[in-house]
Automatic annotation (TrEMBL):
Taxon lineage: Bacteria, Pseudomonadati, Pseudomonadota, Alphaproteobacteria, Hyphomicrobiales
Protein name: Phosphogluconate dehydratase
Species of origin: Flavimaribacter sediminis
Cofactor: [4Fe-4S] cluster
GO BP: any one term: Entner-Doudoroff pathway through 6-phosphogluconate
Keyword Lyase: yes
Underlying gene: edd
Binding site for [4Fe-4S] cluster: C156, C223
Domain Dihydroxy-acid/6-phosphogluconate dehydratase N-terminal: 68-381
Family: Belongs to the IlvD/Edd family.
Pathway(s) the chain acts in: Carbohydrate metabolism; Entner-Doudoroff pathway
InterPro entries in the record: 6-phosphgluc_deHydtase (IPR004786), Dihydro-acid_dehy_C (IPR042096), DiOHA_6PGluconate_deHydtase_CS (IPR020558), ILV_EDD_C (IPR056740), ILV_EDD_N (IPR000581), IlvD/EDD_N (IPR037237)
Family matches, as Gene3D superfamilies: IlvD/EDD C-terminal domain-like (3.50.30.80)
Length: 605
């Protein structure tokens, strides 16, 4: 009951904080709903352009207002494993739409980049801003005002948050998100980490490392570790944008195809032309946001969502804060152990009971708002289920199992793996940051050590290879924030810092950059704001200053006399080399306009 009261209190606080902006938002989408789409009010030239490439039956259907038209926004490309399965989804959706008496058209495509490909490369500096570019690209596709609902095909890190921002910007339209599913399990994650650390130490070569990575990432579908991509899928389901049980069905299977067809039909059923009108902007409210955060904490999800959820919420007039996120983490127990919080992958999570079991447990514990609208209807109870394929190829749902299929991967509300979600806000004289501690051993959650200063992750890697880091230290990697560099992920730091920790050293990371959903066993204070390029306190840290990171107390401090620290001039860095190449020059205006990390690091809000 105490947890239920806390969930209600935090939700009401968000509602009150957002009241004025939410009212303006709802008024705007209500007006948009009244004004369109009404295809008969388009000029004949407008309409003819809109259905010129359609078949005769679809043209006849779209000539009036009686038949719903589903706009497909797709992140398909065939280089990225997570998005390659989307190649054939439009054909399935169009066929399902016709079966349901409607029409479906691909309204537009959006870019989809992979942080796994660009890690440590210049292209990574475009990654975070691709979220806002995706939102704008989707808006271009939907701006033709030809559609009664939208189906969004996207999976990975920035793609889903960008698509959600677009869906909420067109919040008068129903929006159904259709996932592609994870690839089948490959090399165990613990073995992958072992080989990566051996490579960092020079004990195996590139050929061995490439063979390891190829066995891990080996086929179509999402990467199987629980990073941002799979956190996205969990969020879309627990926030009601997916159909129940849709998130973690492997691509290329009959059930996956059946769920895709079902999603298309459901999207057409909830338009304003029917009796179940479910506009995305009304469906997505403060309760939905809190449900998403509860799911994130209960599964040990991605730190990237301390940026993305704030930006997504703002698109609907809702003001979420890091304080809200941290406070919810303190009261939501960890129910899943999926890598990097454990050895299992998302396929093991799904086999153990997956989203249906998880949602059932959270409902039983009073930790979810059940009285929400979803694309499936009213309430979250329907999501405590598991989809099955019938003999005739349709989908039926069974109640989720009452018992976990593997209690080392998925546990109950009465026996959580730990009493909190492990995603916390740190604050102190260095500003505000976030840390994910669900994979950090308790004895490593408080680190006090001298600072070693780096202005790039390459500098730290070079120091490691030269043998200069065999000691206790806090790595301060600065000038990596949204305005400086576009806030790249710094995963190249994970292997060397992990090696040093395994050697018995006390190590931690403090940075104004990101570490994303794969934040692991090394304590990392990330997203530090104000960032260094804005003259934030991180730019006043000097080599050898003692830094104390206390993830238990929620503090991050440099232990220098306050008067002395305040007198220091912030150091600067020459960022010329990182401002061009691989398209980075095209993003200069976005870097300049980027908001701070605790407000979503967005150029849109």
């Amino acid at each position: 009951m105490a947890a239920r009261n806390d969930i209600t209190r935090i939700t009401e606080r968000i509602v009150e904080r957002s009241r004025a902006s939410r009212e303006i938002y709802l008024e705007r989408i209500e007006k948009a709903g009244r004004e369109g789409p009404h295809r008969t009010e388009l000029s004949c030239g407008n309409l003819a352009h809109g259905f010129a490439a359609c078949g005769l039956s679809d043209k006849d259907a779209l000539a009036g207002d009686a038949v719903p038209n589903l706009g497909i926004i797709t992140a398909y490309n065939d280089m990225l494993s997570a998005h390659q399965p989307f190649e054939h989804f439009p054909d399935l959706i169009r066929a399902a739409a016709r079966d349901a008496g409607g029409v479906a058209q691909v309204a537009g495509g959006v870019p989809a980049m992979c942080d796994g490909v660009t890690q440590g490369q210049p292209g990574m500096d475009l990654s975070l801003f691709s979220r806002d570019v995706i939102a704008m690209s989707a808006a271009v596709g939907l701006s033709h005002n030809m559609f009664d609902a939208a189906a969004f095909l996207g999976v990975c890190d920035k793609i889903v948050p960008g698509l959600v921002i677009a869906a909420l910007t067109f919040g008068h339209l129903p929006a159904v998100f259709i996932p592609a599913g994870p690839m089948t399990s490959g090399l165990p994650n613990e073995e992958k980490v072992r080989i990566r650390q051996l490579y960092a130490e020079g004990k195996v070569g590139r050929a061995e490392l490439l063979e390891c990575e190829s066995q891990s990432y080996h086929g179509p579908g999402t990467c199987t570790f629980y990073g941002t991509a799979n956190s996205n899928q969990m969020l879309m389901e627990i926030m009601g944008f997916h159909l129940p049980g849709a998130s973690f069905i492997n691509p290329g299977t009959p059930l996956r195809d059946a769920l895709t067809k079902e999603a298309a039909k459901r999207a057409l059923a909830i338009t304003a032309l029917g009796n179940e009108y479910t506009p995305a902007g009304v469906m997505f409210d403060e309760r939905s946001v809190v449900n998403g955060l509860v799911g994130l904490h209960a599964t040990g999800g991605s730190t990237n969502h301390t940026l993305h959820l704030i930006a997504m919420a703002r698109a609907a007039g809702i003001h979420l804060s890091w304080e809200d996120i941290s406070e919810l983490s303190d009261i939501v127990p960890l129910l899943a152990r999926v890598y990097p919080n454990g050895p299992a992958d998302v396929n093991h999570f799904h086999a153990a009971g997956g989203m249906g079991f998880l949602i059932g447990q959270l409902l039983a514990g009073g930790l979810l708002h059940d009285d929400v609208r979803t694309v499936w209807g009213e309430g979250m109870a329907a999501y405590a289920s598991e989809p099955r394929l019938t003999e005739d190829g349709a989908v039926r749902r069974e109640p989720a199992a009452a018992k976990s299929g593997d209690d080392k991967v998925l546990s109950t509300i009465d026996k959580p793996f730990q009493p909190n979600g492990g995603l916390k806000m740190l604050s102190g004289n260095l500003g505000k940051s976030v840390i994910k501690i669900s994979a950090v051993k308790p004895e490593r959650r408080v680190i006090e050590a001298p600072a070693k200063i780096f202005d790039s992750q390459k500098d730290l890697q070079d120091a490691f290879k030269a043998g200069h880091l065999d000691c206790d230290f806090v790595a301060v990697v600065r000038f990596q924030g949204p305005k400086a560099m576009g806030m790249p992920e710094l995963h190249k730091l994970t292997p060397p810092l992990g090696v040093l920790q395994d050697r018995g050293h006390k190590v931690a990371l403090v940075t104004d950059g990101r570490m994303s959903g794969a934040s692991g066993k090394v304590p990392a204070a990330i997203h530090l704001t104000p960032e260094a390029v804005d003259g934030g306190p991180i730019a006043r840290i000097r080599e050898g200053d003692i830094i104390r990171l206390d993830a238990t107390a929620g503090t991050l401090e440099v232990l220098v006399d306050h008067a002395e620290f305040d007198k220091r001039a912030p150091e600067t860095a020459d960022l010329t080399e990182s401002s061009y190449g691989m398209g980075r020059e095209l993003f200069a205006n976005l870097r300049a306009a980027a908001g701070p990390a605790d407000q979503g690091a967005s150029v849109l809000y």
